[in-house]
Amino acid sequence: MIHKVVLIGILASIVAACQPRSEPLMATADYEQQVRKIAPPPDDRARLYIFTGKMGDTATLHSSTGDIYIDETKIGTINPKEAMVVDVIPGKHSLHWHYMNQTGGPLLRSKRFETDFAGGTANVLFANIGWFDLEIAPGIVVTATNPGPANNVIPSLFKVVRPSSCPSTICMTP
């Protein structure tokens, strides 16, 4: 059993190292300035900040490029050291991710993260690689009454990107 786990880990590392990168849809300078500080948006929308990696006591990044899905619809692709910022219509949504241009398989499944995103909230999420699956891991939720940490900004090493294609039934324009 332990050999199987080690073999899967090695294979996942090789795939990630050989993986192509996507051409990001960069945020405009005005929009980047508006969203670089993680703060609650207007009440008519929920804002999602999606990073690759996992947040624990410290942030752990990974080097995989991933396609991001909301309600089973691919909205775009995120590379390492990018933060995808997307405004969604408030309500219940399901998110998951796969390696770029993949759909999963029996060895590495993508767990759905489903939650009710309230209007006026900023939600930090992580496209994380688990032991046997890919997952969207929740981070902090910032609201008008819970502003989060004092220095609550997207670190400068991250480029801010936008979804490349997100239908108006899910996403809202800035």
List the helices and strands and how they pair.
Elements: H1 2-18, E1 25-26, H2 29-35, E2 46-52, E3 54-55, E4 59-60, E5 66-70, E6 73-78, E7 82-88, E8 91-99, E9 109-110, E10 113-117, E11 121-129, E12 133-142, E13 159-162, E14 171-172
Parallel strand pairs: 2-11, 7-13, 9-12
Antiparallel strand pairs: 1-13, 2-7, 3-4, 5-6, 5-8, 7-14, 8-10, 11-12
What does this structure look like?
This protein has 174 residues and is mostly beta strands. The chain has helices at residues 2-18, 29-35, and strands at 25-26, 46-52, 54-55, 59-60, 66-70, 73-78, 82-88, 91-99, 109-110, 113-117, 121-129, 133-142, 159-162, 171-172. A hairpin with a 2-residue loop joins strand 5 (66-70) and strand 6 (73-78). The model has no long low-confidence stretch (mean pLDDT 83).
The secondary-structure class comes to: mainly beta
Shape: globular
Q: What are the low-pLDDT stretches, counting only 5+ consecutive residues below 50?
A: none
Order of helices and strands: HEHEEEEEEEEEEEEE
Oligomer: single chain
Q: Can you count the beta strands?
A: 14
Our count of helices gives: 2
The N- and C-terminal alpha carbons lie at a distance of: 49 Å
Helix share bin: 10-25%
Main sheet, how many strands, which sense, barrel?
8 strands, mixed
Radius of gyration: 16 Å
